[in-house]
Design a protein that fits this description.
28% of the residues lie in helices and 17% in strands. It has 15 helices and 18 strands. The two termini are 13 Å apart. Residues 46-501 form the Carboxylesterase type B domain.
Length: 534
Amino acid sequence: MTMLLPFRVLCLVSVLLLWGCTAPEDPPDAVPGSVTTGTIVDPPVLVTTDDGPVVGALINGLKVFKGIPYAAPPTGARRWAPPVRPTRWTQPLTTTAFGPPCPQTKAGIPPSSEDCLRLNVWSPTTAGAHAVLVWIHGGGYVEGHAGEGWYDAAQLAGREDLVVVSINYRLGLLGFLALPQFEASDHGTGNWGLRDQIAALDWVRRNIAAFGGDPARVMIAGESAGAVSVTTLLAAEPAQGLFHRAAIQSGTYRPVLEKEQPTGAFPSAYVVGVRTAILLGCTQGDIAACLRAKTPAEVLAAQVQLPAVTELGFPLSPTLPVVDGVVLKGRPLARVLAGRGDVPVLVGANDDEASFVMDGMGVVGNPGDFGRYVDTLGAGARKAELTALYQPVIQGERKAAIALGTDLSFACPAQRLAAASATTGTANAYLYRFARAVPNGPLAALGAAHGTDILYLFGHFEALATTPTPDDVTLSQYVQAAWGTLARTGTPIPTWLPYTPGGPFLTWNTPSTTEVNWRGGRCASLESLGLLPL
């Protein structure tokens, strides 16, 4: 991938799975996005933030707060502008229901609202300052929200004695529209959703001690677009110092736009902005005011009309972070190689990341499917070399295509990120391969598919209609321990050795093992063929 559209992709495998990808419904009396004051829940848990007091609930030994505003609603003049602190309140704010998702086209979710810049906190009741894990959801930068059921952090926070924070951020055109008319006072443009993530991290820095967290031990983590966000935050100037470890799950460094120049299959950010203005009829006079007067529904209607980016065969919305010279001063991998984001990093990919897109691309196992897939990737000139490398006649057309798509979009970029982090800074990098397929349920046939690792990190197998075996429960606890130990100490479990180019990585399976031959050495071959752009 580079990064897929939309990136709650497992939910797209079958309409039968859509129910498994939404959050549990709010209680009947809860209005998504509402803020109530002066109501004390039973049992009440009161914490005072620097914006005002909040009241959460004590649930199974955890202090739980949902829907805390970390920024003002990005409406009116605040749309397509950097986030600002919310208006301070004095009466306790009841925070026991998730805030609304940010506007998006995804079906089957609670009502969305631009008043979506909220975060959630799960905090242990044990004494001391706890390490903090900040989770950034995926969804291709166009969909998803922190209240989705499989992101419920109660099990992870309780088992690992962590404070876990999950965040919403602006999506799609509302989060990443770049135009000169929207240039901020610092001269940056386009990175509104990325700035939201940074604002949430700054909220954590200022407030997490009041929730029992240690602001000096903050780990950022995410999967898919969330993992791409983590990679981008490693490189982002305003994010430096706001986190101290990072986990990149099935992400990469490629999906960013240059402000004025196209890069490969990616258009420039300003070209996307101009197309948007034309679609919305804002081409004369005060273009910024015209665009800000549009409703979220009108903006979303324009968004779905934008030509998708298809680089290496994966469709992607061109609503992405921007190398604007302010928040991002260069492409993420280049910035990591220059020493930005020098923190302990774990990074990896699942064995069969690309399995979920094959049916939609016509790769069902018929003779010639692999070659047609190569043509779709725009790599037809390298078909002979790729056929020799992946041997579809021997391993099957579909399996060969899954391996190629996984290598190009996830696995080889993960290795390159690990190598960059390991060789340019002082902190260690840890590379992993997730090889365990879910044991049953509608996704079992897809192998270790995109998103599988989320089930094991948060422990919510029911979110995708899976019943874990005892081995899966053990593996889930092992994954939680690794992420939790990295958050606490800067080093994951002792059996996970630091990565060096050509060196060891951890394969998550039942049992887990240490290996050294990443993807059979195919990444070097793909790089030599010019198929792994920076």
